[in-house]
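User: Fold this; tokens only.

Assistant: Input:
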Amino acid sequence: MSMPVALTIAGSDSSAGAGIQADLKTFAALGVYGASVITALTAQNTKGVSGIHDVPADFVAAQLNAVFGDLDVKAVKVGMVSRRDIVETIVAGLDRWKPKHVVVDPVMVATSGDRLLSPDAVDALRKMLFRRAAIVTPNLPEAAALLEAKIAVSEAEIEAQGKRLLAFGCPAVLIKGGHGEGAESVDFLVTKESTIRLAAPRVATKNTHGTGCTLSSAIAAGLAKGESLEAAVRAAKIYVSAAIAAADKLGVGHGHGPVNHFHKFD
């Protein structure tokens, strides 16, 4: 029996805490073979993003066709897509190759606060990519930006924003509560039928670089292994919470350090 394959379509993080590098580490830690399509190169470290170099859309297409033309991809995670033409290229690739599971993480702003997406790319993300996703995983600021609304502060507001995001055509939305307040970090898995509250103790650490990338790729890994969406989300939440809790052991960089993807091997 072969190892399941998951594909990440995202930007490269030169300091390897987020983006493609975080996704591949997550896939490896969770027993899934990771392939990658790089949409952008970033000059980045734990203190911020100093440059973005977009990969031409035709080369993104070439990478997609190379991977899908050979590997049996069970699940796809889509992360940073900074330009509209790249979104359109990814959508065309998904329509051509029809992977069973697509997880979309609308990476709009880095942990450091640097904006990563142009306004027309945000519009394409909402109108074109969300309809092809099994689940979309915005954090609280991203959910607000996608809806052009204020950041939700109450659980009722978070659930309401999740329901509004479903209108873009995705069957499930996971709104991540890491940017919230309180003793718990609470995520909300919202579908038309239900809202599931997923809580974990909030960890007092500044080392949270790459948490969103890691969570979405952990969900993709679970789906690639044949787990149900809810089971994949629950397992991903547990994995990321443990990676954050073990982050201070790494001591990487002088800003927002990365989470510890291989914590279970320590």
